Amino acid sequence: MNYKIKQPKRILAVDPGTRYFGVVVIEDGELIYYGVKTIKTNQPPQKRINEAKAIIQKLIDLYQPHTLIIKKPKPHWSRQSKLLLKITGVIKEMAKANRMRIKNITPDQVRERICGNAKANKNEMLNVLLQKYPALRIIIDINKTKDIYWNHLFGAIVLGILVFYKNDEILK
Q1: Whole-angstrom Cα distance, residue 7 to residue 83?
Q2: ∠ CA 35-146-18 to the nearest 5 degrees?
Q3: Is the separation of the CB atoms in 49 and 90 below 8 Å?
Q4: List of E strands, the chain
Q5: Which residues share a beta bridge with 33?
Q6: What structural domains and CATH numbers belong to the chain?
Q7: Per-residue pLDDT of the chain (172 residues; tens, 9 = 90+)
Q8: CA–CA distance from 46 to each of 13, 16, 60 (Å)?
Q9: Which residues pair with 19 in a beta bridge?
């Protein structure tokens, strides 16, 4: 008799920023780690990139995720911050070096998948998610999502949950 052991699907979701970035690790739909990481802004860009690399590598080493889901910067963000593009690129390079699957997701794709409307606002998206995942109320406070620090955590949680939302096939 042959038994096939199903490997757990462990995902690292990252909402990148140049000062804060949200990170979430989800395994088989369960949130096993979440946090907001801070990069010191009073240092040259390359040191900030190296700091982001160290944070992500520590998470990869600790949790050994199979997939990276990362928010793709909108074009106007990219023009405003070349550093954001570099940090995002470095995170993807690290995932590739660690043989992880990589999925870039735009904010519009997230809103479309969760709310059925690419123009939905954060409150609408949050209400849909809290109906499906009431336990998130402990972590996510709608008032805090207006703050850039907490906004990145919310973004990472949404990216991670998106894979399991309505049996989503976003990774296929």
Answers
A1: 36
A2: 55
A3: yes
A4: 10-15, 20-27, 30-38, 67-71, 101-105
A5: 25
A6: 10-167 (3.30.420.10)
A7: 444 444 558 999 999 988 898 999 998 878 899 888 999 889 999 999 999 999 999 999 999 999 999 988 876 655 558 889 999 999 999 999 999 999 998 888 888 888 888 898 878 888 887 787 777 777 776 556 556 667 777 788 888 877 766 555 544 4
A8: 23, 16, 21
A9: none
pLDDT for 93-113, tens place per residue? 999 999 999 999 888 888 888
Q: What is the pTM assigned to this prediction?
A: 0.83
d(CA 131, CA 41): 37
Task: Give the chain's radius of gyration (CA, Å).
Answer: 16
Nearest Cα to 52, choosing from 3, 101, 85? Answer: 85
How far apart CA 52 and CA 21 sit, in angstroms, is: 9
Instruction: Give strand pairing partners of 145.
Output: none
User: What are the angstrom distances between the C-alpha of 90 and each of 32, 83, 96, 111, 137?
Assistant: 24, 10, 10, 26, 32
Phi, psi values for residue 119, rounded to 5° = -100, 5
